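Both lines are given unchanged directly below:

***
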Amino acid sequence: MSTTSTAATAQYDAATRLRARLRSHRWRRHAIHAFGAALLFLALLPMLWLVQMSFRPNADILNAGLIFTPTLENYRALGSGGFPESFVHSLLASTGSTVLSLVIGVPAAYSLARYRFRANRQIAMWILVTRMAPPIAFTIPFFLAFTWLGLMDTVSGLVLIYLTFNLAMVVWIMKSFFDAVPRLLEEAAWIDGAGVWQAFVRVTLPLAAPGLAATGILCFILSWNDFFFALILTRTDAMTAPVAIVNFMQYAGWEWGKIAAAGVVVLLPVLVFTFFVRSYLVRGLMAGGVKE
């Protein structure tokens, strides 16, 4: 009887400890979730404040209170100026530079990852060096070259300038993804009769699709958010959206409503683009650091 009582007591104690451990784990998980939610709220707070400011009337734009009568006046005002044209210029320049960077950079990254030659590492390092200097160091050479070539204040000039700093990122990011793809898969495709290009398009590139999507998103965001080169190399015919927002800051006063509304509009393409390819973006950022 005593043995049975001792065993029952031991089981009861074990069950109690297990319940306490599960309760502690549950509270710890809730605390982690609450902490993550708080961090997310702090990260999104500037964006949320910008959104609510864009719906405020101009007379109430700087009021710290959260109670106000929403209006679409600021968004309607954007259509009467040159902001829509600037938005289109940003879209064309960012999309064009992203596509061109991927078309040129992906084959270059594949060649650096698969073919070993004497200057392989040196070429990869030279490509990376183009991203090390600050943009202002290239301002005068680019300005003089674009003036001589007739590319000042053109969308094609913006595509070219964005290509110069997107290309290095494409090569280095995609090279890590191609390094993670087993070469045996390509050799199997060669045995089945596929050529080098066919093996690359049908085998290697689909396996590196998450990295391709992640790289494309980063290229688009960098081009879309550029302000410095667009300010220096454009005037009116190819003005981009970030530069157009600055025009709302005038000597007579800053048009905060238009600035907030334009900021929200500029955010939308990146948010929509990222939302539709978010799964590829997460997989791409995770897979790039893993090698088989």
The chain has two domains: 2-54, 80-287. Residues 2-54 form the longest helix (53 residues). The chain has 13 helices and two strands. Residues 288-292 have pLDDT under 50 and may be disordered.
